[in-house]
Amino acid sequence: MKLKFVLMFSGFVFALACGDIQGKSVAITHVTGSAVIPENTNFKIQLKEDGTQSAAVSMTWPAQIVGSGWQKSLQVVEITVQSNLRSWRVDVYTDNVAADTNLNQKGGLISFTDNSKRLVLGWVVSGEPIPDLSVGLPGELITNRVKGSTSSVAAPWRYLKDKGDQDDVNTTEFNESWGESYKGKYTAIIFGGPNYMLLPYQSLWSKSTIYLYLEGDFSSSEGAMNYTGTLHFDFIGQ
User: Fold this and answer.
1) Is residue 38 pLDDT above 70, yes or no?
2) Which residues contact 121 (CB under 8 A, 6 or more apart)?
3) Host H or E run for residue 183
4) What's phi and psi for 98, nearest 5 deg?
5) What's the burial of 91, exposed, middle or buried (CB within 10 Å: 0-12/13-18/19+)?
6) pLDDT band at 180 (very low <50, low <70, confident <90, very high)
7) How many Å is the maximal CA-CA distance in the chain?
8) In degrees, to the nearest 5, what angle opens at C-alpha 191 toward C-alphas 189 and 192?
9) CA–CA distance from 145 to each of 63, 125, 188, 233 (Å)?
10) Is the pLDDT of residue 22 over 70?
11) What is the pLDDT of residue 123?
């Protein structure tokens, strides 16, 4: 029997003006698909200040960063997951389909006033906090070695995907649609089973807590617009 638990960490509502993103981030968890979470599963999400790991109440970016390219948020999302289910995974994404945007790629934050404009976001996970984590174009290797990776190379940032994403007909190397991204585990921040957990770069991880970092692309003047969005986290197990 397949059990699906959809847990949405909502309350992330970002408003961006003059290079400042400020957000109201109240931890509201919605569970659908099952009346209760099994006793052998623990799933918890907390927003922390990057560096001090103290509790945070909002997600922010540095001031006056419009035109500065990719910039990392000043906060980090701490995720704790434990489960004895046969197999499970946790995915992160946005769901901007209701915004009626005409963009093929919708992942990130959508402008309040012009739904053809978005603030593109990227993410990477680490087994331990890295306050000095480097930013970069998603797909390129970050210079810091991501904690928990046993490979000889660092892990890359990934684009934050959206449930409304369609394939870009102008590219042939990858299918960027939501369906193919989900099937290929591009959206998965961690997955595992009764006795193991795997980070996205196929590295075994023995602890129950990981850290999700977000970056935004502020390279254009559109970074001074007002944006909104919600991060969704799905735990799916069977």
Assistant:
1) no
2) 94, 107, 108, 109, 159, 160, 214, 215, 216, 217
3) helix 178-183
4) -65, -20
5) buried
6) very high
7) 51
8) 160
9) 27, 11, 20, 25
10) no
11) 93
Q: Kindly report the CA angle at 42 between 41 and 48, in degrees rounded to 5?
A: 160
Taking alpha carbons only, the member of 30, 43, 32 closest to residue 5 is 32
In this prediction, what percent of the chain has a pLDDT beyond 90?
10
Cα–Cα distance, 102 to 178 (Å, whole number): 15
Amino acid, single-letter form, for residue 184: G
The 10 Å Cβ neighbour count of residue 68 is 15
Tell me the average pLDDT of the chain.
74
Question: DSSP class of residue 135?
Answer: P
> Which residues sit opposite 44 in a β-bridge?
80
CA 77 to chain centre: 9
pLDDT digits (tens, 9 = 90+) for 198-209: 888 767 777 788
Q: Distance between CA 237 and CA 90 in Å, rounded?
A: 9
Number of other CB atoms surrounding residue 198 within 10 Å: 17
Check residue 82 and give left, alpha or beta (phi > 0: left; psi -120 to 50: alpha).
beta
Measured CA to CA, the distance from residue 167 to residue 64 in angstroms comes to 33
Average pLDDT over residues 125-139: 82
